[in-house]
Amino acid sequence: MSDSDLLLQNVSDLTQYSGVAESAAPSNELGKDDFLQMLITQLRHQDPMDPMKDQDFIAQLAQFSSLEQMHNMNDNLSDNLTWNHLLSQTINNTMATSLIGKEIQATGNEAYLPEDGSTECHFRLGAYADTVSISVFDGSGAQVAKYEMNKLGEGDQVFEWDGRTINGERAQPGTYKFEISAVDSLGKDITVTPYKLGIVDGVQYVDGQAYLVVNGSQVSLGDVIAVGSGEEDG
Prior knowledge:
This protein has about 230 residues and is an alpha+beta fold. The protein has two domains: about 5-95, no CATH class; about 105-234, Immunoglobulin-like, CATH 2.60.40. Helix content is about 30%, strand content about 35%. It has three helices and twelve strands. Strands 1, 3, 6, 9, 10, 11 and 12 form a seven-stranded antiparallel beta sheet that branches. Strands 2, 4, 5, 7 and 8 form a five-stranded antiparallel beta sheet that branches. A hairpin with a 2-residue loop joins strand 9 and strand 10 (about 210-215). The longest helix is centred in the first third of the chain and has 45 residues, at about 55-100. It starts with a helix and ends in a 7-residue tail after the last strand. Mean pLDDT is about 75; it is low at about 15-25.
């Protein structure tokens, strides 16, 4: 048996060992099986008067080995990402339960109106405001109430909505959105940052994700910007 035939036989054995079939469906990506199939084809159609040299064959096998290692690394990376996601989800779910009873501050401009009573909208003013305008919208985006507050100082402020609509009727219980704007005595806009503030009453799980229950509303852990001691510590 010639050297070329021996090389071809060795590669064919490798192909059978790897489970490569010549009739495999074509792919848009060049994988390790495709690379090995190309090497076999190259050996079959080489010039008998100028066969592939041993060093060339070894170099191509080295390329095949590198390609296989890269493929395995990609599979391992995908597995690691999956495990990291599950680990992160587990940590978040565990952390969420530890916040029950704590007062948290979170980004957002929504608040839940119960069937009876009022709800609060918290916001921070970047400077002294001569006039603060507050509009309340329901889940469909319709404006249900509008209020105005005057002469508020810089810093944290709170607006308590009694649940009354523009028509003086009691609004239905549910989640409402607050839009707040403020101007100084010269009519210049002032920065307003709305946020949620309340005690964590419990935890709800939606599609494997933990959400804090604060004043009847769901708050994502990613929206939490501060954690206080809560009522339990006075």
